[in-house]
Amino acid sequence: MAKEKKSPGQFSIDPAAQQMLIRAESLGIGTAFTRAEAMPACNIGSAGMCCKMCGMGPCRLTKDGSVGVCGATIDTIQARNFVRMVAAGSAAHSDHGRDMAFLLKAVAEGEAEGYSIRDVAKLRMAAAKSGVPIEKRSPTEIANDLADVYIAQFGQQRGELIPIRRAPEKRQKLWREKGVVPRGVDRETVEALHRTHIGDDQDPVHLLQHAVRTALADGWGGSMIATDVADIVFGTPAPVVGQANLGTLKADMVNVVIHGHEPILSEMIVAASQTPEIIEYAKAAGANGVNLAGICCTANEILMRQGVPAAGNFLHQELAILTGAVEAMVVDVQCIMQALVGLAENFHTKVITTSAKVKLKGATHMEFDEHHAMTIAKDILKVAIDNFKNRGTVEIPQVVEDLVPGFSHEYINYMLGGSYRASFRPLNDAIMSGRIRGVAAIVGCNNPRSQQDYLHTHVTRERLKQDVLVVETGCGAIASAKLGLLLGEAGLDQCGAGLREICETVGIPPVLHMGSCVDNTRILTVLTQMVEEGGLGDDIDQIPAVGLAPEWMSEKALAIGTYCVASGAYVIFGGSSPLEGMPDKVSGSADVLSYISEGWEALYGGKLEFIEDPDKMVVATLEHIDKKRAALGLPEWKADKFGRSGDKRMNELEALPLEAKFEAVYGSVN
Predict the structure, then answer these.
(1) SS3 assignment, position 258
(2) The model's pTM
(3) Other CB atoms closer than 10 Å to residue 271's CB: what's the count?
């Protein structure tokens, strides 16, 4: 029996995406959505039960008790596959951090064209925490030494990574006791590959312990360095007004979509697009200027600092080209589909690769070098502008949402108390009183094997109803942005009374955009500061908080999930697990799957679970939050306890006659 064809609405909940999928079908063009639908899932490979790490295989373990040619058990094979995925994800994010560290060095030495140190306060903070002297020293002197410290973290062979000092003291002690403190970013990744080579580490528990060490090298190492340097050089994010979705593309302008993950190039393209030279060049080509839009985590980087609109998340990259309105899609690294070049051949779009690490066959390669950043950025924009005359039929979905991104941990600290009394105390107090039930971090990718954005936004909305404050990064944040949940009052009608009261009083959206996927380290910092503020335990694992990646698809997500678990968080992944087979077909290893849940929880207080049903995700989240509240001795959360004070209540009182106002505040005088 033929498989029933999916409708655009079954592929995505986003009306802009649906419109472009209809156009793709009418033109006979495939997308990631249709390719995923046509591609049968390999139950053995997706469950991590296939080993192809040597020439004796591949070995496919499909029965209980079966082993590979070398005798490797299913537990060992699954653990090795998991470790390798964590290592690859850690390498991707940490290599980003390395490039940022080298940028900081070039800026400090005056060799990076167009860049400067924009946040001296963040520079001094990061330097002080890294042991770099700051008193009576210029910003460039401090930056030069800090860059050397950061660069050394990657090749360091002994000792401990310096950024782990930012974790709660109790957590640091635990990591030392368990022997998982990273020695150097590169060392842990290399050792992960060595341990998983044929004939090496064959104890699943021992293997998975090194997955923890490798992931920590990313979360409390490479990724944290990447975020630090981005803030120092490009500015620490603070709230700005932005827009999201394909409606941000402009019919009368040269549209350049910037896609990837590293802000080094994108920030300079933003600067170059605003120069008189480029503006006049675009007008001479018949356009009204250059319109920039981001895709994926590059979108988050330039959105939260510059207010540049986000054309969409991961699964929008092909859809943007399908509009026919994109003169150039400029890409750097990570999450870039090889299908873009073939798709672009149906339109006039030029796909331009810019990284020495990434080339696509058939794309235009214009390698970026920070030493000549502005010059190269202008050259890229001119290629796009020259292509404007080649446009064909344009179809831009008129779908766009406003949003307020840019909630760095520094700004959250500031917004809760202002310049003179900035503190996480109000947040802790709100959780302790029950106005906020707990916190959920919803992060991660899109996956075409699930309905685009549905899982992200469903679990977000359900948590808001239950007074759970939500923080988001990456493609998950863009999913909520497209739904209108990142704009103040736009989402307040979906909040519980207590959370709404807090949002109205502080003046924030109920969902806080905290940046790109590499900026999940900001969430670790917030959790650490909440611990240091007091009242919610003395370590991260005691806080009523949960992390979720509802639509995960990349190895980076597994690395993030693992370092969050090791930091003490309960992490839920949606979709399929890489450690178990499909129901009633192939059974995965219950031992490995249970170890990363119960085993890791016993060691670190955090656990990793895979839950496909979104409603079960919601239940698991709330059960965990309530369990943590009870363990801290906090009052039981009650839906109707709060919500009659704050700005909204004061406005209601102001509208009352004097006598009624007195009675509302103090009660009846009788």
Answers:
(1) strand
(2) 0.92
(3) 17
